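PROTOCOL LOG
Step 1. Enter all chains and additional molecules of the complex.
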Amino acid sequence: EVQLLESGGGLVQPGGSLRLSCAASGFTFSTYAMNWVRQAPGKGLQWVSAISGSGDSTYYADSVKGRFTISRDNSRNTLYLQMNSLRAEDTAVYYCAKGKELELRGVFDPWGQGTLVTVSS
Amino acid sequence: DIVMTQSPDSLAVSLGERATINCKSSQSVLYSSDNKNYLTWYQQKPGQPPKLLIYWASTRESGVPDRFSGSGSGTDFTLTISSLQAEDVAVYYCQQFYTTPQTFGQGTKVEIK
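Step 2. Run joint prediction.
Step 3. Record the structure below.
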């Protein structure tokens, strides 16, 4: 069974930093693209970032480009999101989501349970 | 970016009745080289992460009940729940994966009348 477990969320002041982790199991981690998707409280879904299976290619939403960095450690089956210069509008539940195979890599399945990031003074 | 617009924002349907959700993209998500629509539907129940229901606009994910169906092509798509069950109460999102950034509709909340 595929499992994704996020951690690292919490309360941080504006301008601060946080690193999220997503521990994966139940599949060959290095074979699949991985994503971060966020959901502000009571709001809809926003794709944040993606990384290829090898880690060679990364992609970002304009709203986080230059502030967030996605990475992965395939030896540890773990996905990361380093978040710097955090703003109040980054407050959200952050989900880790596995891309499906090949041309379906932009389809997210499954999703982790999410970790809440709150940016507030 | 491709803008995805769902309608309605919410709907209330009686148990056993049909629920229909529409999704419109600001540009076509039909890829000419493979004639596939790069459009998915997700279900999000309260307090849970989203769950994949349908991809390629009409291909049901394994394990998804056949009362859920997707249709449409190009820029206009529909998710239909043929006979609403109590466990279908959720917010439903469409998403395009035709291009990066992948974008979602604003969501449609389905409730029991």
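Step 4. Note key features.
DSSP finds no helices and 13 strands in chain B.
Residues 96 and 102 of chain B are 6 Å apart (CA to CA).
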